[in-house]
Amino acid sequence: MATLKDAEKYYKHKGELEKVVKLKLINSDEIVYGARAVNKQLPAYLRRHTEDWDIATPDDPKDVAREIEQALDKRYGGNFFKVEPAQHKGTYKVISNITGSGVVDVTVMENKIDHRRIGRINYATLDYQLSRIKASLSDSKSKFRHKKDIDTRQRIKIHQKRSSTPKMKAVK
Mean pLDDT in the chain? Predict the structure, then answer.
């Protein structure tokens, strides 16, 4: 059980998590997908808050999750994270020992993921995300995420429409 002192230290350094994960991803073969990939490619007003990272890797996902967990523990200065298998086979979660919440999901890359490099990190393309959403919405087992997927699809479509709309020239 975490002490109050550990919890305070965790919350004080919560911003370090993003820095550590990004350092692991720079110039790697891993690909960020899900909400973070969508957010990275949308303007601020269309982004949705997300806490965790979804990462696909061509390597062993357990090893990648452990590397991230160890880097986080080192940065936080203690045993603040752990790795556990997720419900989905081939996926491992890095979990905060303080909150019990997952902070990173690392999954094996089973199929090609269309992606683009932004700031030396690979992010799944919006078209790839739309194809995943389409598959999810046609799967009755994924009903629990349909509302979230419909919202994400709508935000992507707004962005795509705005990006393809010709800009009006200023009249003098």
Answer: 93
Q: Where are the domains of the chain?
A: 4-164
Q: State the Cα–Cα distance between residues 103 and 5, nearest whole angstrom.
A: 21
Look up the pTM and report it: 0.91
Helix 146-164 × helix 126-137 angle, to 10°: 140
Q: What was the pLDDT predicted at 20?
A: 97
State how beta strands 102-108 and 115-118 pair.
unpaired
Q: What is the DSSP letter of 3?
A: -
CB 40 within 8 A of CB 124: no
Asked if the model's pLDDT at residue 166 lies above 80, the reply is: no
Q: Could you give the angle at the alpha carbon of 31 between the alpha carbons of 25 and 35, nearest 5°?
A: 100
Q: How far apart are CA 149 and CA 141, in angstroms?
A: 13
Encoded tokens for 86: 């997720």
- What tens digit of pLDDT does each residue of 21-76 get? 999 999 999 999 999 999 999 999 999 999 999 999 999 999 999 999 999 999 99
Q: Which CATH number fits domain 4-164: 3.40.50.10170, 3.40.800.10, 3.30.420.40, 3.30.460.60?
A: 3.30.460.60
**CA separation for the pair 141, 161 (Å, rounded):** 30
Nearest-Å Rg of the Cα atoms of the chain is 18
